[in-house]
Amino acid sequence: MKKNKNLFIRILVLVLVILVTILLFRYRDQIQQLSGLGYLGVFLLSILANATIILPLPGVLLTSAMGAIFSPFWVALSAGAGAAIGELTGYLAGFSGQVVIENKNWYDRFTAWMGKYGFAAVFILGFIPNPLFDLAGIAAGVMGMKIWKFLVWSFLGKFLKMLLFAYTGESLFVYFSGLR
Q1: Is 58:148 a contact under the CB 8 Å cutoff?
Q2: Whole-model pTM above 0.90?
């Protein structure tokens, strides 16, 4: 009985994650209007941009643009925190979708790599701009990584990546506008 209940909850969470991804991708143009809210907008947009599974939304481009307008450090902090929270969809998909992806050859290799490097893998994949972070989140969920540890290491990697993009955006703005 408990096994059936857990399976139902996992399937329900997976369906919700897929639904969120579809809705975010469908309404991505309207979501961009949140940037007018300053740091809060950056935070919210970053959550939404990272809440998609596999389908990318341009979160780092927004971070670069906002870094040219606001303080790059605070933009990176807002975007990094939002990105880490948004990545919970991948984690939850892994938690709920274990039955769907278990026994896949590519996934076995990826989880072995994640098992070997653990939090360092989450940090590195969070820092490097790539679509593989969704797989890291899924693997972390399947492997039962503590959610708070996933969030901390995800935040650290995402924050440093966003810091790089925010300061790049500021530098490009200064260079091309001739200001400062």
Answers
A1: no
A2: no
